[in-house]
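Batch job 17 of 40 flagged for manual review because the log was empty.
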Amino acid sequence: MSLYQMLLAAKQGNAFNVKRLLTQLKMKGVDIDIEDLGPLVFVQKNKHVLEEVNHTILDSLIDQFSPAKSRREASQKGNSHDHRTHTAYFVAKRYGEQGAVFAISCAPDMTVETHWPKSNRTDVILIENSECFTFCSSFLDNMGLQNIDDDTLVIWSSGKAITHPNATHFLSHFHRIHYCPDYDLAGVEIYETLFKTLGDKIHFMMPFDLARYAKYCVVPKERMRYVRALNKAKGLGFEPMVKLLTDGRGILEQEVLIGE
């Protein structure tokens, strides 16, 4: 339960975790005694309700920590990154026109048919890192993607940016999406997020000989991220990635696959 949800529960007379509420308020720079919100009534372990609500203080906190309705409002509350942008922008190119780079604007009112008629919607390749996007011919060859149609759309997906709802809506209009990630926790989690919307259209790309790059694996600063990445790869049946991470005892950035 988020801080906002706990404050709302307290106002509505529902049970909430007092200790967690005070901890989250303190993390946000609010030092307050729970009695300031009203007298407590015990319900069960770690759960209390307010017998009487101090609406003045509680309403002020609810307003302060309510989810922002726009990027502008989020910036007024201290962090614009707490709210998604209106539009997601991506650098892209046609595979057969490596030098002709253009931008794709994924907005709520975007009409995909205007720029990509149904007859021209071939495969889409998502490349997470800019260097691999720049040298995509050699990179994709090492990824095992060959005989790529010249009209295939190649997008620099830029980490989590591709999970923007308007971006996934855009991608849903295409037949097949090849996702080329870093082989780490973030790469798998981005795939999982995309799969929720795109389903079997999206393919997590792994060259069959991925494990031969194991010597280039590095241990992340937070070792549990490696453990979680390995467990997720096992759960998803990504055997080449499982062998890579097991043999290398770390994670792999995709630039290694650019080649010489």
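Reviewer: the log was empty due to a logging misconfiguration, but the result itself is present. The chain has eleven helices and eight strands. Unflagging and moving on to job 18.
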